[in-house]
Every structure is written in C-alpha cells, then in structure tokens.
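Field: COMPLEX_INPUT
Field: COMPONENT_COUNT = two
Field: RESIDUE_TOTAL = 231
Field: MODE = joint
Values follow.
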Amino acid sequence: GNSVTQMEGPVTLSEEAFLTINCTYTATGYPSLFWYVQYPGEGLQLLLKATKADDKGSNKGFEATYRKETTSFHLEKGSVQVSDSAVYFCALSAVRSGGSYIPTFGRGTSLIVHP
Amino acid sequence: GAGVSQSPRYKVAKRGQDVALRCDPISGHVSLFWYQQALGQGPEFLTYFQNEAQLDKSGLPSDRFFAERPEGSVSTLKIQRTQQEDSAVYLCASSHREGDSKQPQHFGDGTRLSIL
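Field: COMPLEX_OUTPUT
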C-alpha cells in the first residue's frame, strides 16, 4: 500500500538557520507529492507540490524536489523565520485499489523556530 | 466565504451520545474527504465523496460512523453512541476535480470533538 515516512520532530532551530525535513514514500504507480503546513487550531494548507519526477515545488522560500530514484521529497528552506513555526505534513496522492485517489499523509514534523 | 467551512469548531459530548459534524466545501468542488486527526498525528482517511456518491468508506472505524452528502455539496459526518476513543479533530477537505492526483486538497479548520 501507499505510505509516507517523515522525520520525527520537534525540529528546533534559531531564526535564519537552514531547514531540512526529510520525507520518503512508497506508492504504486506515479504519485503526486505535496507538503502541507498546519498552524495551531487550523486545518492544513498546501505549501507546495510536485507532480512528476525531478519537478521542484517552491513557495514562500520553501523548496522540495521529487526524487524518484530515492523515493524522497525533502522540504528545505535556506533561512527560517519565527513565523514558520508550525507542523509540516508530507503527503502523496496515488491511485488506490478501487481506482480512487485518496491522499496518504505522514505523521507530521513540528518545527519550532526561536528568535 | 471562499474556503471550506466546518461547524461546530468545538464539540463536547458525553459518552453514548450521538454527534453530527458539518462540512461546507468550496462551491463547485466535486470531491469531498473526511479525515480523523489524533493529537500529534497526521490526518487519517475516513471517507470520500464524488458529488453525492460515497465512493470510498474504507477508513470509517466502525458502523457507528456514518457520512452523507445528499445534494453533492454540504456533508455531514455522524457518530452514534460516541466512545472516548472518538475524541479527535475531524477535518474536511475538498478538491476541484475527481480522479486527478495532481489536485491539492483544501481543508477546513476542523471540529475538535471531546468525549467525556
């Protein structure tokens, strides 16, 4: 079946530090890959996506590259801000048995950025 | 509003009571999903609608859980005879098209359900 594995958190960084959150996946077929962000008390918001191998998704300084050879989609940002503190979810969307596209989410990685 | 709207935001019920959670998706979105999110975990799939048809309910944890979307827009998730293990945040998401893995999901802010 489809699955997503994220590095465990919390990840604690100082402002302006470099961020990497690892994500690997297993899936049948050719999935689309997503990163979502969740702020306290809110639902998930799409951060970026990539729909085919070697695509790079980017938004608000965050980037992730779809690596088919390593089945990875690691999230990076060159200089984090306090406002980036949130929980980040890696997800994939691929066909499941029955033909429907039901997203599969990782467990989330909490990011805490200190001033 | 332009986003997915869920109500109530918070619900407290006694064990054994029935509850109903509402989701109003983005207008025109064909696909609607319900998820259960336990504390510190990612969303776990419950059920999926394409318009008014419930195409996948494989994630519903028991026959106490029931969902409907009778007119292909608003959806209701009902939990009968609630148990303490039902305490979680219930998220609703919608997407524009069905059968397209490239479509991102648009989430509501969720309903936090607490069973006493």
